[in-house]
Design goal:
Layout (H helix, E strand, L loop, with lengths): L24 E6 L2 E6 L3 E6 L1 H4 L35
Antiparallel strand pairs: 1-2, 2-3
Length: 87
């Protein structure tokens, strides 16, 4: 993979916490644009040259929790109520 295919991203944190209650998360990615929608209300979009270069990546979808810690007391729990993937 060529490192000039992307730029560093500062990331984004939605202004609400979902806690332990069910929530909806919708991701739409197409033609140099990606939008993430939380609970049908809070939206964040990505666009620009990095998105235009997506074609060089082998994109795929994964659902799960990737807990990145060495804390022995850490845990994560994921429960899907509904998962729909369209391509």
């Amino acid at each position: 993979m060529h490192t000039d295919a992307w730029g560093d991203d500062t990331g984004y944190t939605f202004p609400v916490e979902v806690g332990y209650e069910p929530f909806t998360l919708e991701i739409t990615a197409k033609e140099s644009y990606m939008e993430v929608v939380l609970n049908e209300t809070h939206k964040y979009s990505y666009a620009g040259v990095d998105m235009k270069k997506w074609g060089i990546f082998e994109n795929y979808f994964k659902a799960g929790n990737y807990l990145a810690t060495t804390d022995k007391n850490a845990f994560a729990r994921v429960k899907y109520f509904n998962l729909e993937v369209l391509h």
